[in-house]
Amino acid sequence: MKVIIPMAGYGTRMRPHTYSRPKPLVTVAGQPMIKHLIDSLQTLDIGEYIFIVGYLGDQLERYIRETYSFKATFVQQKELTGQSPAIYLAREHLEGPTVLLFADTLFEADLSIINTTDADAVAFVKEVDDPRRFGVVEVNPQGYVTRFIEKPSSSDNKQAIIGLYWVRDVAWVLRAIETQLRQQRQTKGEFYIADAFQIMVEQGAKFITQPVRVWLDTGKPETVLETNRYLLEHGFDNSAHMAQPGVTIVPPVNIHPTAVLRHTVVGPHVTIAADCEIRYSIITNSVVERGASITHAILEQCLIGERARVEGHPYNLNIGDESTVHFG
Q: Domain boundary at 194, 223, 252, which?
C-alpha cells in the first residue's frame, strides 16, 4: 500500500509562521504536525510515502528523511491549481491500493476497514455543524456514496469528508482526474479531488464512508491552538517529568527538556519547544516554538515563532520566526 500526502500550499491562513516554514512543520503538542499525521497511520502496512511539496519543501524533505527510515518520494508542485493536479503529478509513483491524506487533517479513526471492505474506496467522514467550507457526501440506503459535493452552499448535509481516503486501485483515480481536467470540472475555480471522485461514482465505483472519532483541523492559528489543547489532554502531557525549582506548571503541558524556565507559570495547554528561555512570565493556552525567548510577559492564546523574542506585557500574540516584540 502507498500513501500520498499533498502539502504544497503556501499556508496563507497560518502566516506569518509560514513565511519561513511550511505549515506541516508548525509544532503542536511537542512535535510537528506532520509527525502526528504520519504516526496516525502506523497500524497500516505502508510500502511508500509520496509527498507533494512546494514552497519550502526542502525543509519538509529534510525533516522526514531525518526522522523516518521508510521509503519516501518527494514530488515538486510548482503551479497550485488544485488538489487533483497535485495528485496527478505523482502518477508515475502510484499504483494499487493507496491512502490519500491531506496535510491539514489530524484524526483518530479505526482504519481496519481498509483491510476488510469489498468496496472500491472509503471516504472517512465526520458530522459537523457547518460543512460549507468542507466537502460532503450523500449516501444511499445501501450505504454507497451517490454524490460528492465540494464546498456546499447549505448546511443540510453535515457528513463532511475530512481529507482521508483509501482507494483499492489508484489507477481509477488517475483516469478520473484526466477526465476532470479534460472536461474542466472545477469548483470555485479549483480542481478538487472530490470532483474526480464524483466522476468515479458516475462510472460505477462503490464508495463507502467510515466515521472518525476525532477530526482536528490545523489550518489556521485558532484551530492549531484547539488541536494543541486536545492532544495535550489525550496523551501528550509530560508535566509529570518537568518539575523545576521556582516554576509552577499547570497540566496539561508539553515542555521540551532543553527549555529553560525561571520564575514562571506555564499552563494549562501550553507547548514549549526545544531551546526556549522563559523568565518571569505567565503563559497559558499557547505554543512557543524552538529557540524563542520570553521575559516579563503574560501570554494567553499565542503562537510564538522560532527564535522570536518577546519582552514586556502583551496579552495575545501571533508572531513569526525570528521576530522581536518589546513592550517598554
A: 223
Going by the DSSP 8-state scheme, the letter that residue 180 receives in this structure is H
Say if residue 297 is exposed, middle or buried (CB neighbours under 10 Å; 0-12, 13-18, 19+): buried
pLDDT interval class at 255 (50, 70, 90): very high
Sorted by sequence, the CB contacts under 8 Å of residue 129 that are 6+ apart come out as: 155, 158
> In terms of pTM, does the model score above 0.70?
yes
Residue 164 counted as domain residue: yes
Is the separation of the CB atoms in 217 and 26 below 8 Å? Answer: no
- HSE value, Cβ hemisphere, 13 Å, CA-based, for 145: 33
Both 252 and 205 in a single domain? no
Residue 122: all three cell numbers together:
472509503
Q: Which residue type occupies 251?
A: P
Closest CA to 76 of 86, 67, 84: 86
Tell me: do 282 and 163 sit in the same domain.
Answer: no
- Residue 299 backbone dihedrals phi, psi, to 5 degrees: -120, 135
Report pLDDT for 119.
Answer: 96
Sequence letter at residue 234: H
- Reported confidence tier of residue 81, pLDDT bands at 50, 70, 90: confident
CA-based radius of gyration for the chain? 21
Distance CA 220, CA 234 (A): 21
Q: Which residues pair with 161 in a beta bridge?
A: 125, 135
> d(Cα 288, Cα 259) in Å, to the nearest integer?
10
Domain boundary pick from 195, 223, 251: 223
Q: Which domain holds residue 271?
A: 237-326
- CATH number for the domain spanning 166: value is 3.90.550.10
Q: Residue 267 in contact with residue 250, Cβ under 8 Å?
A: yes
